[in-house]
Specification:
alpha/beta, Rossmann fold, 9-stranded mixed beta sheet, two-stranded antiparallel sheet, 10 helices, 11 strands, globular, binds adenosine-5'-diphosphate, ATP binding, metal ion binding
């Protein structure tokens, strides 16, 4: 087992290539893409040159969150050049490799190829690259851990039991591949009232932190279910880029990685 400190060392040590950190979840819809985008922006705000690869083949969404839907990556020497975004994070997304709105029905080797192109791109300026994985433990994840061996993985879950069981499975997957799990993040942890900001807990609270304890993994933080987070993501205005209260949990998690 590793902890945040191990990855921190990797990030600040002399390095030739950027540190890869995979963001995974057991199932979809738990906020993995939202966390990846906002964490990347929060890291960049703390002076860490951060890139993002959206490897979620089944539902790439980063180009929407980053307001970069029309951006198409250029290439140099047969390698893609990541697209600049207005949030200080360069990115490449599966969504930029296909026509907008087209469903992606690729076979395994094509997916592996697209992943390779995005990771072997011109990332020379970045300290760290966050990789938004598809949910679960399928082909893309397997290629990712076997071929590129990320320095660590962060797992996102909602507080409910089912999501937690899936997250624990995803944890075992990274364990088996000898990729250290940096820690767990609880998303949609309580509901932030859009009027007064008070957080209540319709789904219970602390489930992910308790699971982290059980699994002997670091708990990195919790992000409330907040209408402003959803609206910001859809509008291409990720909250971590601003100074609202919604930026806070993302900056705090980034602080733990970047200290
Ligand atoms: P995943 O990548 O796990 O499939 P997404 O990040 O796409 O999940 O999130 C699913 C939906 O939930 C999106 O519409 C997103 O804006 C919304 N969402 C994610 N996290 C939160 C949150 N903390 N509060 C409100 N909405 C959220």
């Amino acid at each position: 087992r590793s902890d945040v400190n191990d990855v921190r060392v990797v990030m600040t040590a002399e390095r030739k290539a950027p540190t890869l950190i995979a963001i995974g979840s057991g199932k979809g819809g738990v906020g993995k893409s939202t966390l990846t985008a906002n964490l990347a922006i929060a890291l960049a705000r703390q002076g860490i040159r951060t890139g993002l690869v959206d490897a979620d083949v089944y539902g790439p969404s980063q180009q929407v969150i980053f307001d970069a839907e029309d951006a198409k990556p250029d290439a140099r020497d047969n390698r893609m050049i990541p697209v600049e975004t207005k949030f200080g994070v360069r990115m490449l997304s599966m969504g930029q490799l296909v026509a907008p709105g087209r469903a992606i029905a690729w076979r395994g080797p094509m997916v592996g190829n697209a992943l390779a192109q995005m990771i072997d791109a011109h990332w020379d300026a970045e300290d760290v690259i966050l990789i938004d994985l598809p949910p679960g433990t399928g082909d893309v994840q397997l290629t990712m851990v076997q071929k590129y061996k990320p320095a660590g993985a962060i797992l996102v879950s909602t507080p409910q039991d089912l999501a937690l069981i899936d997250a624990a499975r995803a944890g075992q997957f990274f364990d088996a591949a000898a990729v250290p799990v940096i820690g767990l993040v609880e998303n949609m942890a309580g509901y932030a009232c859009p009027h007064c900001g008070e957080v209540s807990d319709p789904f219970g609270k602390g489930g992910v932190e308790a699971a982290a304890q059980r699994l002997e993994l670091p708990f990195l933080g919790r992000i409330p279910l907040d209408l402003a987070i959803r609206q910001g993501s859809d509008a291409g205005e990720p909250p971590a880029a601003g100074d609202s209260a919604q930026a806070e949990p993302f900056l705090s998690i980034a602080g733990k990685l970047a200290a």
